[in-house]
Amino acid sequence: MRKPRFLIAGAWLVHAAAWFLPVEKEGVTLPQGLPGWQAFRVAACAVWPYDGGGIEGWYNIVLSTMSAATTLLFVLGSVWVVWAGSRAVRRASAWIATAAFIVNAHWFLLLRFDLRIGYFLWWFSFLLLAIGLFYLSRRADYSG
Q: Most buried of 26, 55, 130, 134, CB within 10 angstroms?
């Protein structure tokens, strides 16, 4: 069954593309807005100081820091989970990716920024990863 491989590879590809596409209109790095890599820096500004901007309000700081953490988990954790994780770890990671998809909806639902394609691809990548990991966790003998 190639469906898990296809979904997870798609999630990684979509996530990688989102780092270089405009995420929000107000950025000045790209003519169309703030690129994904810079949006990550802004989201992480509470724990990784950044001169290019900041987040106001304690709840927005918490949500943006959680958002940055989900990105790190995606980039660093998903590869390990796919290649070396047990079924239980893959299932738990699928639920974590689902939670990340929900948490990252706050940029769209609560803050109402003028979001661009990079945000929606980045956000959708968590859903693709979750679906792929759910499929993968159902299989005991996945061999890459």
A: 130
Which helix (H) or strand (E) segment holds residue 58: the answer is: helix 58-72
Q: Measured between alpha carbons, how far is 42 from 85 in angstroms, rounded to an integer?
A: 31
Instruction: Let me know how long the chain is.
Output: 144
Q: What does the alpha-carbon distance between residue 44 and residue 25 come to, in Å, rounded to a whole number?
A: 19
Entry pTM: 0.84
Position 109 confidence tier, pLDDT thresholds 50, 70, 90: confident
Tokens at residue 75, please?
């980039």
* Separation of alpha carbons 17 and 23, rounded Å: 11
pLDDT in tens, 69-79: 999 899 889 98
Which structure tokens are listed for 82?
Answer: 């796919």
Q: Output Rg (C-alpha) for the chain, integer angstroms.
A: 16
